[in-house]
Design brief:
This protein is α/β, with parallel strands linked by helices and 300 residues long. The chain has helices spanning 26-38, 58-72, 87-99, 117-130, 141-144, 150-159, 173-182, 197-201, 213-228, 232-248, 256-264, 281-299, and strands at 10-13, 43-46, 77-81, 104-108, 135-139, 163-168, 188-191, 207-210. The protein is globular.
Length: 300
Amino acid sequence: MKLRYDLGEVITAMITPMTKDREVDYKSLEKVSNYLIEQKTDGIVVSGTTGENPTLTHEEEEEVLYCVKSAVSGQCKIIMGAGSNSTQTAVQSSKKAQDLGADAILTVVPYYNKPSQQGLIEHFGAIAKSVDLPIILYNIPGRTGIDMAPSTIAFLAKEYSNIVAVKQSNSNLDLVSEIRMLCPDDFAIYSGDDSLTLPMLSIGAHGVVSVASHVVGAQIKSMIHNYKAGQVSAASNMHKILYPLFRKIFMAPNPTPIKALLSKLGIIENYVRRPLVELDEKDRLELLECLNMTLSKLEN
């Protein structure tokens, strides 16, 4: 069945490059944008968690969106991270994303204040009514402190036509099965964890919002295409090759490891904003060894 709005199968949760002074490096941002197009990404999330949005100002978020949109020139979808634990702020950010030309928004479950399921319905409902943009709900209980129930996701998917997908970052695959069973067939489910992409595809997911796609995006897309074409063995083999890298990329708080890899590849400088800190030398070498082993297996 055709999706109500297809944002692609591999969406990259994009990093925000920083200079040595921890200012946004807009020149490198253009470079990363073009590099991701080469990696076959279908969409880019700007100013999400991987983009260090907790430490970006609203002005920086807007400039990042403008810069990335200009760099990709329509070659992929641009999705703005526009969530907040304040409904009013989330609505304002969503309206701004629409005004600035984003193709869609990603909006996270409110964090820290722990609203009820009814509170989530009213929060996301207010956002959906404020914009015409396609909306991806973002459920990540490990960061927000609460889990959006499958029944809540299903209610929102049925009530609002512009709520088109969910990014599900919960390792409980039973919940993914429930979401698929309760939601309309044209509502897309995205894995929020690279290592769960293949398992989630098997129970009805459409694709992944990925961090690893910064470095193995074409391979992730191949895995998804093989699975959907019935080439399950080929998809499984690719998953097994990529799995160690999927796990290692989260050896430290995201996006610290992926920035270390992109620095090694000469695409960005290896800086993150405080309170995050760069990988120590031991972890950096361990991560690079994992990348090299993965690339070696892909070549054979």
